[in-house]
Amino acid sequence: MTHEPATPRRFSASTPLEGKIAIPGDKSISHRALMLSALAVGESRVTGLLEGHDVLATAAAMRAMGATIERRDDGEWRIHGVGVGGLLQPREALDMGNSGTSTRLLMGLVATHPITTTFTGDASLSGRPMGRVIDPLSQMGADISASPGANGTKTLPLMVRGLAPATPLTYRLPVASAQVKSAILLAGLNTPGITEVIEPVPTRDHSERMLRGFGADLTVEVDTDGTRHIRIVGEAELKPQTITVPGDPSSAAFFIVAALLVPGSDITIANVGLNPTRAGLIDVLRQMGGNIELIDPREVGGEPVADLRVRHSALKGIAVDPAVAPSMIDEFPILFVAAALAEGRTVTTGLDELRVKESDRIAVMATGLTAIGVRVEESEDGLVIHGSGGDPLAGDATIKGHLDHRICMSFAIAGLVSKAPVTIDDIAPVATSFPNFEALLTELAQ
Ligand code: S3P
């Protein structure tokens, strides 16, 4: 693994943010578009694909397993798939970089192909728990050897010896995780019979929508208590598609909060995905008093989208309902920054999963916010944040990003509303999900 020198970056008090921007494509949808196109028979076309490092890691992996993937000069991606069951054994280990989604979903795919695949990643990814996918995929017949991690976890590097035909599985998710759900559904694609995932708490449903869009026989039955039974019939044949990827609500989140916090701001963010399994942050910010207007709601690529107009607002602290957590699981770092400027206390609970993201986002946010002058109490599963009531934060600190793009971007936004600058020790991780983050910020602040 090569280590680039760190690139520190300073963020200071901002002039009002004004203007209209478009944000890059949705990361979750981009991964899935590449994977399913690479498994279809024939040529798929994808526009609006996120060209961040995480998604490019998925593209490289699918190429290494036989798909032809090309980017045209006009930005459209063309993918020739190998057909379900047709993945080839990669010649080298698949380097997943920082991307948990690439790793867990691809482990599902290769688990039911008769190939052996090794997965490696960066220091952040190599510390993340993989047992959550190893357990169900092993039950389907894959033979997986992982490295021992902290506290008995199983981690990268790991090797998957796939089995075909595998045994179909009915699996109740022990954690609310779209990655685990998707890994099992993707494993089910090449497994004869019905593979079923039982999901007590709904998580993002992009895999279900897109698998259906590619012609897979996938049904969803919802019990009276909201439990979802997602069933996929294998062995599936996928038909090539033309896909337009909507803008990523998790990337929009940084600019939504920036506009709410920086006095005088009034911005419009075009083409933001608003799938209900992703849109929790908008509801929570509105409850806090955020002025967020949805303009021209419409559908793009089978997903609801709208333009968002966001204006500076005085926010009030609230107790965030833990039930919304899965629909904004990646947005808590930036919500914590919004809470730091609100009036009164914001209380969050039920966020255990944040501890196993690209970094331990509860601990890292608590440390960073404290360093820039925010009063924070950390609990096992959340933070209590005492807001400034709109007064600028002290700032004047260097924040460790811990190879976590969302930590880096959250503290960049905090810098815009701080008296003294906030320095991020290394800005490079931002390119995993949002390569033009700084360029858009500069554009809005002019
Ligand atoms: C993702 C699911 C979520 C999310 C991640 C992307 C996906 O992870 O945090 O950024 O694309 O399925 P979990 O499934 O671990 O909650």
TrEMBL record:
Its EC number is 2.5.1.19. InterPro entries: Enolpyruvate_Tfrase_dom, Enolpyruvate_Tfrase_sf, EPSP_synthase, EPSP_synthase_CS, RNA3'P_cycl/enolpyr_Trfase_a/b. Residues 13-439 form the Enolpyruvate transferase domain. Pathway: Metabolic intermediate biosynthesis; chorismate biosynthesis; chorismate from D-erythrose 4-phosphate and phosphoenolpyruvate: step 6/7. The active site is at 330 (proton acceptor). It is an enzyme of class 2 (transferase). GO terms for biological process: amino acid biosynthetic process; aromatic amino acid family biosynthetic process; chorismate biosynthetic process. One of its GO terms (molecular function) is 3-phosphoshikimate 1-carboxyvinyltransferase activity. It is found in: Cytoplasm. GO terms for cellular component: cytoplasm. PROSITE patterns: EPSP_SYNTHASE_1 (PS00104), EPSP_SYNTHASE_2 (PS00885). It comes from the Bacteria. Phosphoenolpyruvate binds at residues 27, 100, 128, 179, 361, 406. Its main location: cytoplasm. Pfam families: EPSP_synthase. Keywords: Amino-acid biosynthesis, Aromatic amino acid biosynthesis, Cytoplasm, Transferase. It catalyses: 3-phosphoshikimate + phosphoenolpyruvate = 5-O-(1-carboxyvinyl)-3-phosphoshikimate + phosphate. 3-phosphoshikimate binds at residues 27-28, 32, 177, 179, 330, 357. Belongs to the EPSP synthase family. Monomer. This is 3-phosphoshikimate 1-carboxyvinyltransferase. The gene is aroA.
